[in-house]
Write a structure and sequence with these properties.
Chain lengths: 318, 318
């Protein structure tokens, strides 16, 4: 049994990533506030290094490697941003990285991962099991497996985004987070409970893949088929053994957003906030637009901005 | 003869706009730095209120109105962002605004200007003279004309963007600025001379409309025909009576960028920095990519992000 991470781990992670991760800006827009009827604070992890919050957890995890782990290297499986994050963190720390990626991952994410010097091993997301492939590579080659979300150092690292948000803007009434496997949300919940205890924390899943909502309702981890959604970073099939109890305990509720709502949010981000956000990164805002408590101070975490330009152009052109 | 603005006026403007304008973030990207071979600091005025630096100068100018001026109102002519800036500043300060806009201004800019409660008067950019129309409205209705760049309060306000950049990142070796009528560049030059005296300051015009370059080479203000370029915020036909002597004295050089270079820069902004930048806003970066001094600390001012989404999508899709 791995110890669950605590807020102290989030604080320690913040110290480790300082000077390596960007302290991303918090943007506000009175126009969006008027539309939503609340005061929104957007934590822009699309402006993070390699374009997503995942760098935080990856760098925190790799920076805790022992000497032999560093020498042998790291292996990770990922639908995209975790891959780039491990690859970049590995390059910075001098740790060789092997990444197991689905064959249909966005071309920009595969190219970026290879661009950071990692070795990419592809698999079929619909017929093969990435966790088994990752575990086999780890056993055969002595690599340390860093999973995309179910790891205490990854969770603690992801929590630093919310730590910074709360340090920058003070306490919030509600917080809306993209929810895939729960690494971001469980880290965020740890930070929110410590720094803004009365803040309601909402995880937002794609409607097509509400594995966390189903799991919380069932009181146990539910596995779902690989969901079909444009939110490619939240196509997870189940929450983690470590993230689930935290989510179960800390989340106020799990909400969902449709692909149409994600595209609409993406258009508002581009037109009004002037930022590029990938579909998964729109989950928090898509729900906050519908559900934010009137007149309250609301945090919205934008998880990433890694979307192929042609696809982005096609989506925002409507 | 109007007194030319000084750095003290920029400082005073910074005090006036505080709490009304955003202190916009400065973004960096190691990937872009590697490509360019210099350390770039992007001052993101596309993330400014109403989407462009123009809010700074407009708010500074209107906040200096006397009681009678406030009551009668302001008139402005603009190809876009100055219009929205005056409209928004007018709304905040309770000053009625009338805006003279070209009939072919981007639909989003006209809609935004009207959305801020201003009255829009349209004219034909190729056959009519907006300055004459603005002057006539001012005379007939007792309105105070605030021109888009040739006004000391506007220049001082625009200088605050560079003031903030230099406060945030320290001294720079070079600074690249979009150059239209010279309001942004002359204000920036005042700030740079005071806070980073050895910084080279480059204004960057669209290749199709190099009125400032021609003017500096001739030693007098040169008027050119309305240029055809996608940089709709820099389609100026001549520098101003106040801006020209400052530009002549302070600019290290005037560079140009082609429309193709602007589109290419726009794609890098979207793909790597994850931000939406209008064509005019890409001028500084387009030149910096070619010309930034190797290994040096280089500021790049991004002037705005107001571009219709469909047009943006078409441009970045290539």
């Amino acid at each position: 049994m791995i110890d669950a991470p605590t807020f102290a781990d989030v604080r320690a992670a913040a110290d480790r990533i300082r000077g390596h991760a960007h302290r991303t800006p918090v943007l506000t827009s009175r126009r969006v506030d008027d539309e939503v009827g609340a005061q929104l604070f957007f934590k822009c992890e699309n402006l993070q290094r390699m374009g997503a919050f995942k760098f935080r957890g990856a760098f925190n995890a790799l920076s805790r490697f022992e000497e032999e782990q560093r020498r042998n290297g790291v292996v990770a499986y990922s639908s995209g941003n975790h891959a780039q994050a491990i690859a970049l963190a590995g390059r910075i720390l001098g740790i060789p990285a092997t990444i197991v990626m689905p064959h249909d991952a966005p071309a920009s994410k595969i190219a970026a991962t290879e661009g950071y010097g990692a070795t990419v091993v592809r698999y079929d997301r619909y017929t093969e099991d990435r966790e088994a492939i990752g575990a086999a590579l780890a056993a055969e080659r002595g690599l340390t497996l860093i999973p995309p979300y179910d790891h205490p150092d990854v969770i603690a690292g992801q929590g630093t985004a919310t730590l910074e948000l709360l340090e920058d803007v003070g306490e919030l009434d509600a917080l809306y987070l993209p929810l895939g496997g729960g690494g971001l949300s469980s880290g965020a919940a740890l930070a929110a409970r410590a720094l803004s205890p009365s803040c309601q924390v909402f995880g937002v899943e794609p409607e097509a893949g509400d594995d966390v909502r189903q799991s919380i309702r069932s009181g146990r981890i539910v596995h779902i088929p690989a969901p079909s959604t444009i939110a490619d970073g939240a196509q997870t099939q189940h929450p983690g053994e470590i993230t689930f109890p935290i989510l179960q305990r800390e989340l106020t509720d799990v909400l969902t957003a449709t692909d149409d709502e994600l595209v609409d949010a993406m258009r508002v981000f581009a037109a009004t906030l002037k930022i590029v956000v990938e579909p998964t990164g729109c989950l928090g805002f898509a729900a906050a637009r519908r559900a934010a408590p009137a007149g309250k101070r609301v945090g919205v975490l934008i998880s990433g901005g890694n979307v192929d330009l042609d696809r982005f152009a096609a989506l925002i052109a409507g």
